[in-house]
Amino acid sequence: MKKSSSIRRAHALPVSGPRPLSLAIFLIFASGHGATMAQDAPQALPEVTVSSSGLALGASEMTTPVTVLEGDALVRTRAATLGETLEGEPGITGSHFGAGASRPVIRGMDGPRVKVLSDGSEIQDASTVSPDHAVASEPLLASQIEVLRGPSALIYGAGAIGGAVNVLDNKIPTAIPQKGYEGSAELRYGSGAREKACAVSLTGGSGNLAAHVEASGRNAGDYGVGSGWSGGSSVPGSFNRTSGASVGLSWVGSRGYLGLALTQQNAKYGLPGHNHDIEGCHPHGDHLHCGGHGDHGHGDDHDHGDDHDHEHEAHAPGDVPVVDMRSNRLDVRGELRNPFAGFSAIRLRGGLTDYRHDEIEDGAIGTTFKNKAYDLRVEAQHEPIAGWRGVMGLQTSQRKFSAVGEEAYVQPTITRRTGLFLLEEYRIDNWRFEAALRHDRQTAEAEDSGIERSHNGTSLSLGSVWRFQPGYSAGLTYSRASRAPAAEELYARGLHMATATYEVGNADLRSETSNNFDLTLKKTSGPTTFDVTAYRNRIKGYIYGKTLDAVDGLQLLEYSQRNATFTGVEAKVRQQLNQALGLSVFGDVVRAKLDDGSHLPRIAPARVGVRLDTRWREWDGNIEWVQVSRQNRTAEFETRTPGYGMLNLGVAYNGGRGTPHEWQVYVKARNLTDRLAYSATSFIKDAAPLMGRNITVGMRVAF
């Protein structure tokens, strides 16, 4: 959670504690105290445009919270994976699967409930299938990352009931560089895994043509953990090696652009926590049978009331499976402004992906996962009609997914989706109203069995923002969204070694129906700013992996449906102390329960933090303490996770500000006290604790 004060956001950092509502109220009133301090302090940062808002809105205009990472803050925050990059943001954690795979978890939801986009087009990889599969996106090459929560993600798919992450890049130029060329280069080194990483980007153009090339590389060994872990000083098999390159070409005119880009990404990383003892396990009804174990009498496997001792799970050192991934993608993007009467813009986004990864064990390929997919999105923005301005569009996709080999726990499937959407806004005086409507149809066919399931769903969202005083606003949003079950939830059946689960799908699953309320209060200018959001999401027919039995660390997981409720608070208060110093208090908490009062598995615990930031001439810096509480609210067969505190800091020197040749040297340190910490959201938290002390030094230049 190491973020600098220059991060632009419309939503604030979360608050943790036993009473979310009480804590939110305390933060609001605390922000008022001292509002007269530092009257000459710098005021609000310039507004940042949210590309994924659909209407090019400013962050403060959104009816629901949005976080935008860009500029210097993004440079210092970027990590090896998208989940690590965002995990300190309000309401966001990472799924954490060693060093190679970490997907964002938003408000307790992950997998297919969180869309990951590349400039509005869905990234088609295998990361929604399992947390051990990496997201095919390189944070080092991102120019901006936007996180939409809850109903604001509706126009990108009704299934994104947790939210959407939109990664913006420069691989398809949208303008001709003024001096004919522009670019950047970055080098960094991290001590925690002896990580060496680099990225370079260059755009050139003349007349109406612009070209772009970029490349990145990373080589990291097994990462070290905090002191006192019984498994040793580092996590065996947690290495991560990635590389990627992209070439793009655009035609740019006075009214828009049209371009394409070819991108290849490669990754090779280990899968810690592999347990050979479960290879012969199989289910008998609702119970597991593993070798000499009977169907019953699992003893301590059913005792999850006490804290886990977090001993390192047994596996032979050096015998860790390796993922070898390659993703080839063709992107097409375009925009035409003022195409004809009544419309201000037409935008096109499309992607064609050929994805494959092999899981290698003992030098041989054990399982191969393939995903051949396309995604196409067309939207038209119309001029105001009776005061209403909006955008309408069509989105369609097809995904052919297959797994072949020892862990082919899902038969080959073809998933087709088509959606129509409409987003409208109306402004009057100090009010902004927003309404969105979307209808989706999905068919998921299992090729081997010939079973096909179709789901239809209509979703809507209504929201408003009231600027009741200069610099103050309140927002309220209601959404009703329908999510069709993913192919894996419908058709899975088999042993999944990476997560130590035997997964059983259910072809009769219905669509989920989510009813979400978001209430947000913000102050965006003056020496005192705050952002507090409370939400409640009631989901009818929530689909989750219910653990029926556990033996030798293996869980029998069946996809089931029950009604569930997610309730949470996310908040931040910042006080500008003087021209150079600012103090922030932030935190978040989410509670996720089924109707019978039982808890959902792998939910992040509450967090609270304090940060002191400074900006003096060319220097930026921050120091923070983040306290993560223990997670005692666990599902059946899930162990508790102890809490921890982390001390983080960062400092940067920025040269050439305001010139075409800006450069930056930075140092950031995480977990300076080398605290042993575990992630409650991870399937392999005991085999792969979080990284210990890590000091990263880097340099970035723009030209």
Q: What's the helix and strand layout?
A:
Layout: E1 8-9, H1 20-32, E2 49-50, E3 57-58, E4 66-70, H2 71-77, H3 82-86, E5 92-94, E6 104-106, E7 114-118, E8 121-122, E9 144-149, E10 163-168, E11 181-190, E12 195-206, E13 209-220, E14 240-253, E15 256-270, E16 282-284, E17 287-289, E18 322-340, E19 343-361, E20 364-385, E21 388-405, E22 413-428, E23 431-446, E24 452-469, E25 472-483, H4 487-491, E26 493-496, E27 501-504, E28 512-523, E29 528-551, E30 554-576, E31 581-594, E32 607-616, E33 619-628, E34 644-655, E35 663-670, E36 694-702
Parallel strand pairs: 7-10, 27-30
Antiparallel strand pairs: 1-4, 2-3, 4-9, 5-6, 7-8, 9-10, 11-12, 11-36, 12-13, 13-14, 14-15, 15-18, 16-17, 18-19, 19-20, 20-21, 21-22, 22-23, 23-24, 24-25, 25-28, 26-27, 28-29, 29-30, 30-31, 31-32, 32-33, 33-34, 34-35, 35-36
GO biological process, one term: siderophore transmembrane transport
Subcellular location: Cell outer membrane
Membrane topology: Multi-pass membrane protein
Textual characterization of the structure:
It is a single chain. With 703 residues, the protein is mainly beta. The chain has a single domain, classed as TonB-dependent receptor, beta-barrel domain (Maltoporin, Chain A). 4% of the residues lie in helices and 53% in strands. The chain has a 22-stranded antiparallel β-barrel. A six-stranded mixed beta sheet has the order 1-4-9-10-7-8. A two-stranded antiparallel sheet has the order 2-3. The longest helix is centred in the first third of the chain and has 13 residues. The N terminus is likely disordered. It comes from Diaphorobacter aerolatus. One of its GO terms (cellular component) is cell outer membrane. It is found in: Cell outer membrane.
